[in-house]
């Protein structure tokens, strides 16, 4: 079969498969294996005792020739209780036999060499049957993005050494700084921070870390191997495929018990390499190629998967639903969403909505860009910024314009934005405050409910490092600096008070530094981990963030995400450099990015919520006539 046939309607009509039984379907008496392999001449199932050939006691238990069925399916049923046994398929295409784990595998041995038959019921921790999704209205959503390792690797985290960097760190709900009993850390900390969603960097099985011996290595995990299997290096035993599943569920349940939604970062747009389970099973089908057969590389990772082909689109939908239902995941963040097509994203949204009320509340957002061009099927529309209004409601995208306006371009470290000293940014700031892309961008979202607002994420510098590099330029990342703290607070205020859903990198609220490294994906544990001691050294900043989140929660005029609510924002004609002021419902918001204090005339009396870097939720002070706004600060006043 020619690879050029893969993208055709004729191929899909003949080979498209919509059965719900792909993978290993387990019962106590027998297990049925089904794999979609329309180009294969032959598929053989191999059953093994262990997850890898290197383990003691490993042996091949049996080999079974699978029978060819309609629509490219190969199937067989093996009698007996196979729970815990490992398996592979040997798929022969054009005379070449390749041994591979299962595209639809639900469990894996160490480093994913083999899939595992699993009785999922036995992976449920105690109380799992009572665990429910935790969801929030979009307008109350506050996202905190963290890597499993970074969360608890620091010994100051107070987490037991054997659980540091693991799923199980999330199950400690009483951890404190060095165990001092005073300063909450990890989930104990998150309960009080004011965030609603923990967004976990990749937690599906990825390839760059040796699960058996991770040592000091970490990786962000944007190198997927098995999308439906949790990563093994975060488990306490990567050799037993059941352990990571159970511990992942314990993590989710613990976050739910803390009242927190769990968002998974999903990277369906490329795989670790072309030496993948997909390529070994149906060579060429799952990846985009141009007319000469050259594999696309819009991911800059060597390959692009083909969401615009029926069986990969279907795979993505199945995978999302599997995580949502089997693991109780509450939301998804799509890496390089611009490499997926709009139709696929809309179908995923639709499939989640059909899960019922909780499904409709599950958040779904992505990066509306790619790292380069990709050979989309003719007619497919990439899910990029330009397609913002073709994406259904409930699909959000990162607004990189607010990020760059507020703190400066992500890729020019020394160039500042509004808060850190770049002049003449007032009009650009006004634009993004109302929930929009930059004014000169070709299109605009029809509602701010399509936007994630942020000034830091795992990619690029931390906010603090960007401030050091653009203002002081002396690499003094570890030196406390009041001016930089003021800039940090001003940036946080803009994100929290603008139209769109707030998002932050873990530790932004405490001046997190990575010593200026703007791409730390494989730079080891120590550089990447959250420094819990530093978190409390910057407790004043943390308190400011918490106060901002509390204000946002309490004022519908801030958090409402309709276009009408954004249009109600009225900017005041203040002819002062670096000042942007606006009325929004009961509130008057003033940003002053200049170094000098500014006096702003007031009509009537106001209660002070925020002034000069401090938040007063009790609104104990009033002001009338005029208000003084310190240099580099935000003021928020409520009309009496
Ligand atoms: Ca792995």
Commentary on this structure:
This protein has 640 residues and is of the alpha/beta class. Helices cover 24% and strands 21% of the residues. It contains 17 helices and 26 strands. The strands form five sheets. Strands 10-11-14-15-16-17-18-19 form an eight-stranded parallel β-barrel. Strands 20, 21, 22, 23, 24, 25 and 26 form a seven-stranded antiparallel sheet that branches. Strands 3, 4, 7, 8 and 9 form a five-stranded antiparallel sheet that branches. Helix 12 runs parallel beside helix 15. It is globular and about 85 Å long. The termini are far apart. The mean pLDDT is 97. Bound molecules: calcium ion (CA). Calcium ion (CA) binds next to strand 12.
């Amino acid at each position: 079969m020619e690879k050029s046939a893969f993208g055709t309607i004729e191929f899909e009509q003949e080979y498209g498969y919509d059965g719900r039984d792909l993978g290993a379907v387990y019962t106590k008496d027998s297990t049925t294996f089904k794999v979609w392999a329309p180009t294969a001449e032959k598929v053989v199932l191999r059953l093994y005792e262990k997850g890898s050939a290197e383990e003691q006691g490993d042996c091949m238990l049996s080999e079974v020739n699978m029978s060819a069925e309609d629509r490219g399916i190969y199937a067989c049923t093996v009698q007996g209780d196979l729970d815990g046994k490992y398996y592979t398929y040997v798929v022969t295409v054009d005379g070449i036999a390749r041994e591979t784990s299962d595209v639809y595998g639900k469990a894996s041995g160490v480093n994913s060499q083999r899939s595992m038959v699993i009785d999922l019921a036995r992976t449920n921790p105690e109380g799992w049957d009572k665990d429910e999704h935790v969801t929030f209205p979009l307008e109350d959503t506050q996202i905190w993005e963290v890597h499993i390792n970074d969360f608890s690797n620091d010994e100051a985290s107070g987490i037991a050494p054997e659980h540091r960097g693991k799923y199980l760190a999330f199950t400690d709900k009483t951890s404190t700084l060095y165990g001092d009993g005073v300063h909450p850390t990890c989930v104990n900390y998150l309960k009080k921070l004011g965030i609603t969603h923990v967004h976990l960097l990749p937690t599906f099985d990825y390839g760059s870390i040796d699960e058996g011996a991770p040592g000091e290595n970490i990786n962000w995990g944007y190198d997927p191997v098995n999308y439906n299997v949790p990563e093994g290096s975060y488990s306490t035993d990567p050799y037993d495929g059941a352990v990571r599943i159970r511990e992942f569920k314990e993590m989710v349940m613990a976050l739910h018990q803390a009242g927190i939604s769990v968002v998974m970062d999903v990277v369906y747009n490329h795989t670790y390499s072309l030496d993948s389970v997909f390529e070994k099973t149906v060579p060429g089908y799952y990846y985009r190629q141009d007319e000469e057969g050259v594999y696309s590389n819009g991911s800059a990772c060597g390959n692009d998967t083909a969401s615009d082909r029926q069986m990969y689109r279907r795979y993505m939908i199945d995978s999302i639903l599997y995580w949502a239902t089997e693991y109780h995941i509450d939301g998804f963040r799509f890496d390089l969403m611009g490499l997926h097509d709009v139709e696929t994203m809309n179908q995923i949204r639709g499939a989640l909505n059909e899960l019922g009320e909780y499904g409709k509340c599950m958040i779904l957002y992505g990066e509306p860009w790619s790292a380069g061009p990709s050979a989309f099927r003719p007619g497919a529309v990439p899910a990029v910024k330009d397609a913002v209004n073709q994406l259904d409601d409930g699909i959000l995208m990162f607004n990189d314009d607010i990020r760059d306006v507020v703190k400066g371009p992500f890729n020019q470290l020394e160039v500042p934005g509004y808060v850190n000293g770049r002049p003449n940014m007032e009009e650009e700031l006004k634009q993004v405050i109302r929930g929009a892309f930059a004014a000169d961008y070709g299109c605009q979202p029809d509602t701010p409910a399509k936007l994630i607002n942020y000034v830091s994420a795992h990619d690029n510098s931390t906010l603090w490092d960007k401030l050091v590099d653009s203002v002081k330029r002396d690499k003094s990342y570890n030196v406390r600096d009041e001016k930089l703290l003021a800039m940090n607070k001003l940036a946080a205020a803009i994100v929290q008070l603008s139209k769109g859903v707030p998002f932050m990198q873990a530790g932004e609220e405490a001046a997190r530094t990575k010593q200026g490294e703007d791409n730390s994906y494989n730079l080891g544990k120590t550089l990447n981990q959250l420094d819990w001691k530093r978190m409390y050294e910057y407790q004043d900043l943390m308190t400011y963030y918490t106060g901002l989140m509390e204000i946002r929660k309490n004022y519908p005029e801030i958090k409402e995400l309709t276009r009408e609510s954004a249009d109600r924002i009225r900017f005041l004609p203040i002819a002062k450099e670096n000042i942007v002021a606006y009325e929004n419902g009961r509130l008057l918001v003033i940003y002053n990015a200049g170094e000098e204090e500014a006096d702003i005339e007031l009509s009537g009396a106001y209660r002070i919520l925020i002034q000069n870097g401090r938040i007063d939720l009790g609104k104990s002070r009033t002001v009338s006539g005029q208000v003084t706004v310190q240099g580099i600060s935000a003021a928020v006043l409520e009309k009496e």
